Amino acid sequence: MPVTAVTTDADALTMTLVADFTAPVSRLWWAFTEPRRLERFWGPPGWPATFTVFDLRVGGRAEYHMTSPTGDLSRGGWEFLRIDEPNGFEVVDSFLGEDGKPIEGMPSMRMTFAFEATGQGSRMTNVTFFTSPDALEQVVAMGAVEGSTLAMSQLDHVLEGLRAYAQGKGTRTEILDDTHVRITRLIEGPRELVWQAHHEPGLLRQWLLGPEGWRMTVCEVDANVGGRYRYAWEPDESTSGQPFGFDGETLFSDPPRRAVTTEHMTGTDLPSTTNDLSLFEEDGATLITLLIAYPDKTTRDLVLGTGMTDGMETSYARLDGLLAR
Predict the structure, then answer these.
(1) pLDDT tens, 151-187?
(2) What distance in Å separates the CA atoms of residue 101 and residue 311, rounded to the nearest whole number?
(3) Boundary (domain end) residue, out of 119, 137, 160
(4) pTM of the entire structure?
């Protein structure tokens, strides 16, 4: 992870995050001041950000909301106090209500972002200044240290660009913590087609097959919130194995950007996972990011031990071929 330290200082009333990157300072500035790039990492995994206002000038404002896997919104806003391109900027960061105004009883914080060159690339130092010990404790108790660490860990692939980050590397699985795993795969094709391939039964039957020698026998999809889906597979004559399937419910849908579903192995009493699918397009290629939330570490390790990543890579390779046709 690029984050090297997150520290709080009760005497100075600060929280400081330091992260190192191989990209130059100019690329860091670009990532933090282009809203479509910024929203790819500003929210932690499972709470992606959407910037609705971004007026980069002293006295200007930025407004955003982060959306939970079930569609709940957490709103925030910046007022730009200082801009020093490409070395950094300073804002007042506030929790906002539905009316766009700061929420009474919630702290507003001054934040500085400093970008400096290093021998390996660049370093970002983000300092948040609080007005009281209670405000610092309140924000830390809300998970600010963990959330900011996970959020900034997503910045690497934004700085590199999608193809440099993912092309030729196949399906990658990263363990984020005891209950969260992130899977990424670059697909050559526009986001709208990748979205269709994930939600139209006729397309799903052509690529979502796992290892060679299996066929899809059930493919039922209702992508509306509250709708349910069911998939089932069985081995063909060339291989052996027991038929199996998955079922679940759509919790959130924002076509063609994001879909959140539950996933349960049909016919078992195994606990469900929450699968958070997001798609981002750059230069005609789409990065698939699947954030899986497991109920516990034991379940996480059990599922990863099945060879899940290899099976997904076989399916995604078929999807690449399908879109190429």
Answers:
(1) 998 898 889 888 888 878 899 999 988 999 999 999 9
(2) 48
(3) 160
(4) 0.87
